[in-house]
Each structure stands twice: as C-alpha cells, then as structure tokens.
Amino acid sequence: MGDDLIHARGLAQTFHTKRGREKVDVQAVRGVDIDVEEGEIVGFLGPNGAGKTTTLRMLTTLLKPTAGTATVAGYDVATEPIKVRQSIGYVSQSGSTSGEARAGEEIMDHGMLYGISQKQAEQRGRELFEQLNLDGMWNRKPKTMSGGQRRRLDIAMGLTHDPKLVFLDEPTTGLDPQARANLWTHISDLRTHRGSTVFLTTHYLDEADALSDRILIIDDGEIVAADTADNLKSNVAGDLLELELKDNARTTTTAEKLGSIPGATDVEVDGVDVRGRLRNAGTAVPGLLRDLDRAGIELVSIEVRRPTLDDVFLNLTGRSLREA
Ligand SMILES: Nc1ncnc2c1ncn2[C@@H]1O[C@H](COP(=O)(O)OP(=O)(O)OP(=O)(O)O)[C@@H](O)[C@H]1O
C-alpha cells in the first residue's frame, strides 16, 4: 500500500549466539508482516522476549534484517537507512537524555542534529514542552525530573524534528499508575494535535487497550493477531458469564440450560458457581434468567465480564500474557 508508513513483509532476525560452548541460532523474529497507516496508533503487544524490541530495531534501521523487506516512511530500511532515520522519531526503553545538560539544550541539539535551525528547534521544542505538560522545565536538568517528566522529555526529543512516525519502546515501563495514565493521555493528544503516527511496544494489556487503534500481538517471534481491540475481543473470546447459585444441587441443571444457549462454550461448574462463555451475553442473559426462575433455581449473584486482551492472548496461545 503506497500510503503505509510501515510496510514489512517476512521480516526476520536470527541471532547466532553461544549457550555455554554450544553455538545456537535464536530466531528472535520469524518473518513478520506489518502494515501501519498514516495517523494510526498501533500497539505492538507481546510477552518478554517475544521479539518486540528486535522488530523495532529492524524498523528503525538499528539492526539489519536477516530476511524479508520493510519500508518505513516510504524508504527501504536496508538500502535507504539514512532517509528512514530522518523521517522517524525513536524513543528507546532507556531514553536518550543524558541527565547533565539542560532539557531545552538537549532538545535544541537534537533538532539541529536533524538539520533544523536553532530557532526552529527552539520553537518546536517549546511547543512540545507545552503539549507534554513540561512547562517550566526548559532549564531543568533531566536528572532532577520525575520518572514521568523524563519520559515525556524523551518523547519531546523524539518529536523535535517533526517526524512522520514515532516509535516508542515500552514508553511507560517503570512509571507509577498515575504517571502511566497521564502519559497515555499525552500520546493520544499527540495524534489529535499533530497527526502523529505512533508505533509503540508494550507488555501491558491495559496500555495496548487504552491507546491503540490497532493491536499487533507477537508471540515467540510470530504475529498471532492484528486487529482493533474490539474485534480481537469479540472474535476470539465471547463474554464470560458467572452465576452463583444458592443451592449447589441445582448446578448441573443450570449448566445444561446455559450450555443449550446457541453459541455458549466453556461451560463449567465450580462449587456453587456455574460459568460459561456467550457470544453476546447482553441479549442471551434475560431469557436465561427467566428460564432459571421458572425452574425455581435461585441465584445469589450474577456477573457478566467483557473479554479482556488477556482472554484473547490465552485463546491464541494457550497461555496467559500475565504469566508469560
Ligand atoms: N543480540 C542478541 N543476541 C542473541 N539473542 C538476542 C539478542 N537480542 C535479543 N535476543 C533474543 O531474541 C529474543 C527476542 O528478544 P526481544 O528483546 O526482541 O524481545 P522483547 O519482546 O522486546 O522482550 P522485552 O519485552 O523483554 O523487551 C529473545 O529470546 C532474546 O533473548
């Protein structure tokens, strides 16, 4: 697709490394296809060691693919790495601020490194400070800032040269919940105010869910799903229904009634609880409740839970992302 800002086909990375004395090949990324359109926020989700950073390093030209092709911002990562680098912003896990220089100076140096004038760099930098809620921080040293402020400074730096596309590698790792939620707002605002296209890696389910227009799930070097969070959830999992009964003598009958609803799966009895998955609990539950009432089955509680991305991951891989 001509307008894709990222277009990768069969992108792969095999590391030749040693385990003790033995030589081993680690297939960190096993031929992935990635498409990202202008203006999208795409979350690249996967457990530790799944291949997120390696993929990001290939897309940002820091690591040469061992197989496959990719264009980023219209340029080939293998043959036009300099053009790729000029068109993107990259905020690594460790950040890029030194801690000693003043924040504003770092921003201006970074802009000038990308060939923009000092005046322009300062103008863009100050604008970004305002957008990222870093007012009054221009002359501060990064080492005196909070974790959240420093991450926002890293992001400001990645955006100083006004790239078409910005890569964020685990942007909120190490931040407390409040600073994380705050950064999410800033990342969404960047898209709203600047039209930035964002490709971010994360191993937080809630982060991918809250931020991304589309989610790519990578597991063991392979992309196992690529869709909106809503589609992923409704395709794979189905709502989870949990009924708590007053009398466990009636659990079998309840389970049968639940299981006879079209599309019901994974029905199980656990003590006084009966659980199952339903494609669309909202429309099926009223009928079920009437049916149970007619049969004289009394409920203590009823809970309907929308599927989470963890359910999606579990369905795709058989493992929970929380545990993985
Ligand atoms: N330079 C290297 N040499 C050998 N193996 C490597 C190298 N870099 C990464 N790997 C291996 O490749 C696999 C993918 O690693 P990668 O860092 O891309 O995963 P990740 O999804 O980013 O994980 P995390 O969330 O922990 O950052 C892992 O098994 C890792 O050990």
From TrEMBL:
Residues 6-245 form the ABC transporter domain. The keyword Transport applies. Gene3D superfamilies: P-loop containing nucleotide triphosphate hydrolases (3.40.50.300). It is a peripheral membrane protein. Keywords: Antibiotic resistance, ATP-binding, Nucleotide-binding, Transport. Pfam families: ABC_tran, DrrA1-3_C. One of its GO terms (biological process) is doxorubicin transport. GO terms for molecular function: ATP binding; ATP hydrolysis activity. Belongs to the ABC transporter superfamily. Drug exporter-1 (DrugE1) (TC 3.A.1.105) family. This is ABC-2 type transport system ATP-binding protein. It comes from Antricoccus suffuscus.
